[in-house]
Amino acid sequence: MDFITAQNYFGESGLLSGKMPGFEYRPQQTEMSRLVDRALKEGRHLIVEAGTGTGKSLAYLIPAILWAVANNKKVVISTYTKALQEQILHHDLPSLKDHLNLPFRYAICMGHENYLSLRRLKRARQAGLFTDALEEKQLQVILDWAERTPSGLRSDLPFEPLHAVWEDVGRQKDLCMGKNCETYGSCFYFKERKRWFGAHLLIVNHHLFFANVASNGAVLPAFDAVVFDEAQNLEEAATSFLGLEVSNTSLYYFLDRLHHPRTKKGVLSRISYERLAEVQTAVTVVRQRVDRFFEQVFEEFGRTSRVLRFHTRPLLDNTVYVPLKELHDLLKEIEASARSEEDRLEAQAAANRCFEFNNALSALLNQNLEGYVYWLEIVEKKRYVRALLRGVPIHVAPELKEQVFNQIDRVILTSATLTTHQGFKFIEERIGFQPHDERTLDSPFDYPSQALIYLPRDLPEPSEKIDVYAAALAKRCHELILAAGGKTFVLFTSYAVMHRVYEHLEFLGKDYRLLRQGDVSPREMIRRFKETPSVIFGTNSFWQGIDIPGDALKSVIITKLPFDVPSDPITEARLEHLRVNSIDPFSQYQIPRAIIQLKQGFGRLIRKKTDTGVVSILDTRMATRGYGRHFLAALPECAVVEDLEEVKRFFNRHASPGMAEGLIPS
Questions:
Q1: Per the CB 3.0–4.6 Å rule, which of 25, 45, 84, 90 could disulfide with 12?
Q2: Residue 422 pLDDT exceeds 70
């Protein structure tokens, strides 16, 4: 296969055109494949923005396969969204296998906690852990499912298991007996890991990739190159993974699993130990001290939902540390004297959790991690109030540069949205990436004829009173939804505004299916959206990773430029960090971040060459503020109008069958 280059596949008369159904020659795809091919062969770092429709996944998959097979190497493909991961796994790679007969092996790598543990399932059945009827019912379904599932993956269950149930039947690294386990030969996780080591391509998500970095390579097999798709999310993924958090709910859940005060069941009830009552009492003491600690939190900061950044150490007495340390020591004694390997592992895992909780809480209260920002989140729930202490690094570029980019010879970053008005400068500085090559490839779509941008000037600015602002937004959204015959995404940056606008437009439910984020799962929203003319009201998760080609989506309404909320603790800390370094945070951080997010939102509309539609940006600052030109310049070149009648005429010209007078009855 050495003599066949990636370019042999992508040319106008290449291998793909003859063997891949529906393949269309795209010069941008050919160029991207050439760049990826060179980066892999020459050991170079590459960043490439490939416009929507380029076919970027094939443009990096084929060179990666050819290089990996020819040189007996391993390439990691890392994505951010599950949707892209599933596209690669269930469409792209099977197509390459079926139509090109490429002799390569690939595997999806999931975190160990996603797999069923047959040993723990057996123990859960024998121990009779669950007193709740739904938990018992789910356990029985999982027992039946375990007999026929080929993967043992939680995601393959026909339902989402309760956290308490999966906690007792799912694999946990600290509780794994490895080759000493009676079910080792049939273990889903270890069977899958064997496939990882024999694969040329490993498909992972960004979170698992950073878990591997944090564990010094203990999660994934050694690899020789990595392709980060959806690379605009690398900074956030790394920040999240490197952070610390402790909540009252996580502590209570851990303690209840050890020894539940009401049911008297839990991990300790399964362990044979002569001083068991003493350990159970220690759990009760820890629970009392957790109560006391979080009562301090609520007395000091209230029980109303809020986010509060800690600029200095909070004046909170750590009542948890000493009793949690004493519980840790008792659990270590159980570990040392355990009569069975299962008991030893249970005690060891619980002791480790005590240690981790104590370390994290101490670090959060003492603020002794340099370069971190710390805050408290209070969330009112129906039956309780959740308090979460968090700390995350402000700037991850040095860590990424040292731990990732300097360690791997071949790193390829790609996405449809990596550049701003400053080119690649923003993303490269944020993550510490210094590529040998960088390239921007435009989209093969004919945006001037396929799309229209609507920028009204007559709406109130987002700073207006919320009642006035939401009412005006709703009125304009109403007109645009009618013009498109439903088939609309309405994208928000705020849940509060989304709910206000939705309430104004609920009456439209008689004509269209209205789907609001939070009412059902995003996956179910998309499924329903494709069935019948619908309107989705969504926030962050609908700005990216959603692919709805064809007639189901005709209109994307962006209600507000997606600037990060400046009072958000991590955003606020990043802005301060830039000011300290004499960098203007608005022009060098806030605008570039918002441009990338806006490009993501715009990208939901046109997904193939036959798609048409309108992107409406209902933020008048696009027209009235100087920075608006940077946002507009970052979007694909197409006609821009401010007259709603122009929008209606566009829809009429591109009307689909059944789209009469802008209204389609459901």
A1: 25
A2: yes
At residue 481 the predicted structure's pLDDT band, cuts being 50, 70 and 90, is very high
Provide mean pLDDT across the span 195-202: 95
7-105+199-224+408-441 and 447-653 share one CATH topology? yes
The CA-CA-CA angle for residues 101, 105, 110, to 5°, reads: 140
Residue 636's Cβ-side half-sphere holds a number of Cα atoms within 13 Å equal to 29
Average pLDDT, the chain: 91
For residue 55, which amino acid is it? G
What is the arrangement of strands in the sheet containing 613-617, beginning at the earlier edge strand? 513-516, 534-538, 488-491, 555-558, 613-617, 451-454, 639-641
Both tokens of 608, joined, read 């193939």
Q: For the chain, what is the total number of helices (H) and then of strands (E)?
A: 28, 18
Please name the amino acid found at residue 403. Q
**Strand 225-228, strand 201-205: pairing:** unpaired
Radius of gyration of the chain (CA): 27
Q: Where are the domains of the chain?
A: 7-105+199-224+408-441, 113-186, 240-393, 447-653
CB atoms within 10 A of CB 653: 10
Residue 451 CB neighbour total at 10 angstroms: 24
Cα–Cα distances in angstroms (integers) from residue 570 to residues 80, 240, 375, 573, 587, in the given order: 20, 11, 9, 5, 18
SS (H, E, C) 575-588: HHHHHHCCCCHHHH
How would residue 131 be classed by pLDDT, with cut points 50, 70 and 90? low
Return the DSSP state at 378. Answer: E
pLDDT digits (tens, 9 = 90+) for 38-97: 999 999 999 999 999 999 999 999 999 999 999 999 999 999 988 899 899 999 999 998
The answer to whether residues 416 and 50 touch, using CB atoms and an 8 Å cutoff, is yes
Q: What is the pLDDT of residue 546?
A: 86
244 pairs with which residues across the strands?
A: 391
Closest among 385, 520, 439, 359 to 36, alpha carbons compared: 439
Contacts by residues 271-278 (CB-CB < 8 Å, ≥ 24 positions apart):
271/334, 271/338, 271/343, 271/346, 271/347, 272/339, 272/340, 272/343, 273/334, 273/337, 273/338, 273/343, 275/330, 275/333, 278/330
Q: What is the CATH number of domain 447-653?
A: 3.40.50.300
Contact 109, 211 (CB under 8 A): no
pLDDT of residue 655: 79
CB-CB contact of 480 with 512 (8 Å): no
Please say whether the structural domain 7-105+199-224+408-441 has been given the CATH code 3.40.50.300.
Answer: yes
- E-only strand ranges, 381-418: 385-393, 410-415
Contact between 140 and 161 under an 8 Å Cβ cutoff? The reply is no
> Bridge-partner residues for 452, per DSSP?
614, 639
Q: 246-284 pLDDT, tens per residue?
A: 999 999 999 998 998 887 888 888 788 888 889 999 999
Sign, CA dihedral 310-313-314-317, equals positive
Q: Residue 517 forms beta bridges with which residues?
A: 520
Sign for the CA dihedral angle at 69, 71, 72, 78 comes to negative
